[in-house]
Write the C-alpha cells for this entry.
Amino acid sequence: MVGLCGVLGTDSELPDEMTEWVTWRDDERTDSYADEDVELVVSCHPRLAGDQPVFATGEDTLVWVWGDVYGHGSGEDYTPRPQDVGTSASFCAHLYGEHGIEMVEALNGDFALVVYDRTADVVSFVTDRVGTRPIYYARPDEDTFVFASNLQALPHHPDVDVAFQEPYLQEYLALRRVFGVETPLSGVRELQPASVTSIDLDDLTMNEASYWRPHYEPVNRSASWFVDRLTETLRTIFEEWTRDDLDYGLLLSGGSDSRLVEACIDQPVTAFHVTDWNNRETRVARHVAETAGDDFHPLYRDDVHEARSLGTTPPLSNFSGWFDQAYCAEFEEEIREEVDVLVSGLFADMLFGGGPIQTRSYSLGPVGKLSVPIGRRVDDVADYVATKTGDRGEIPYFTPDLSLSDVVADGIRPTADGGVVSHGVRYESLRDLVMYGDYYPLSADTEAIFSRSLTQIRPYRTPFLDNRLLDLQQQVPVKYMLRRDLVGAGLRTVDPALADIPHAGTGVPPSTSFPVAYVRKNLNGLYRKHVCDEPVPAPHLDHRPWPDRRELLRAFPFAIDAIRENEDLIRSLPFLDYDGVRETFQSHQVSEDNHTTLYSLLTLLEMPLTDHLAPSGDDDDAPVVPETPTAGTRSDEVGTRPL
C-alpha cells in the first residue's frame, strides 16, 4: 500500500504494526527516517518516488511527497513540473528554497507533503486543495503526535487508545460517509484540506492554517466560453502530463466524462471497463474505444465477486464508501501488466454537471417522478441537513437513540462573519457548503474508496481535480450546470464522432442539444420502464455500470454469511444489536430496501480496526495486518465469458 505514517515526540517510537500498513508490497519504494524527535515511513510507486527525503536550503530542511505534484503557480505564471527531470519531492524542495512554506499556496497536484525544518524544529504537513491524500492524526498525550494515511493504522500505536464515536458512526452507516474532517474514532481527526499544519517539536503545539477554500463566484459568460475553457484546459493538462515512453490506462464507461478524457488525451490508451456481462454500458464503451482507435479491455466480475471483495478491500476504508466500490482492486495484476499510469474522468459530473445541487421533481403518479433542471433553494442549515439525510429513518440494528438529522445538524454551526463550519471544516457561506461540502475534503465523498484504491494500483490521475479546473468550476453559473451539458458540448468540439455515440444511460448522443436531449432522455426512460427494455440475464444484472446491490443481497449469501461469521463481534459491540442485524437483512429479503445500511455494516464488520477495538475477554490483542487486498486472485478467470 502506498502511503505514509509516523510519530513525533522524543519518547515515542513508530511500531512495526503501523508501518506494515503502508508497506504491503515488495515492489513499492519505501523510505524511512528517524531521529530523536521524528520517525516517518513513506511508501510510493517507484515511478513517483525517487530518493526521499530531498534536502532543501542546504541540509536544514527535509521534504517528503506522497503523491504527485503537477506544477506551481496560476494563470500565465503557471509552471508545470518537468516530467523528465527530477521528482515531485525535488521540485517541492527547490520551490521551498525559493519561497519557503508559502510555496504551497500555488502547488497543483494530488499530494500530501511533509516538510521538516530542522533549524526551527518544526514539522509541517501540507494537504492539496481537496485533501485527495488524507492524513489522520491522534494526540494520545501532550508529548506524542501520531499520524497515518490509513485510518486503520492508528489504533496499532501502543499510545493511541481510541473508541468508536457513535454519532459519526451513525453518519457512516446511514450515509456512507462522515462529513468534514471528523471520524468515527474518538480522538482521531483528518488534517484540513488545503492546509499547512505545523508542529513545534519543542512542545508539540499544533498550528493549522488554510491556504485555499472553494468559493462559488459565478461570472457572466456564455456557455460556449466555459466549454472552450474546459476543453482547452483538459488538452493542456494532458500535454503536460503524458510521456511517449509510458503506457496509459483509462477507466472507460458508457457515459460522457471518460469519453471526453479519451478525446483530449494525446496518447493511445488501454480502455479498461469493469462489467458483469455484455450489457448496454459495455457495448457503448466498446464502441467508444473502437471509434477512438484504442484497445478495449473488459474486466469481468463473476458471481462471487462481492464475497471476494468483502474479504479483501475493507482495509482500504477510511469510512468513506463501501467495500465493493474499490471496483478495480480485484484486477490489479491485470492492469499493472498493461499500463504504467491510470487516468479517469471521475468528478466531472460533480464539478460541471451540478452533482451537489438539489433539483426539483414532480410526481406523475404511477408513471414515476419527473426531475426538472431547476435548482432547489437551500435557505438554512436545516434545509441543507434535509437534503443530505432525506427520508432515512432509524437503523434497526444501531442501538443508540440518535436522530440522524440531529447528528448531522449538531456538526454544523454558523459563524459570526457569515461562514459555516461543518464537521470541523470552514466554508465561507452556506452556498459554499452546498456546492462543495460533498468533496471538500474528498473523504466526504461517498465513493472516496474508489479513488483511494486506484492510487494503490498505479500512479493515478484525474484531470478534473487539477487546480485550473477547480478554479474554472467556481465561475460556472448554476444554470449551465443544470441546463447545459458542458461535458457533452466539449466532446462535440473535440471529437464529434465520439459525441455521436449514444450515452449508455440516457440513450441520447452527447452531440444532442440540451432541450432535445432532456426530452429524449425522459421519453427513453419512460419507454424502458413501462413499455420495453432489453432483457437481463438475472435480476441483479442490468444495463448500468454496476450490478444492482439490492438484488445482489437477495441473490447471493455473502451478506448473511458475513453476519453469521461475525456474530460474536456484533454481540461484543455495544452499539450493535445482533437480532436487529438479522431483522434488517431478513426484511430486505422480503420487500424493504436496506442495502445502504447493510453495505455500510458489512464494510464496518470486515475492517481490521473493528475487530481490534472490540471488547475482548482474552489477552490476545495482537493487531492484525491484512494481506494485500488487491492480489490478482482471478486474473486467469478474467475474460472467460463470451462478449
User: Anything to note?
Assistant: The first helix runs from residue 16 to 19.
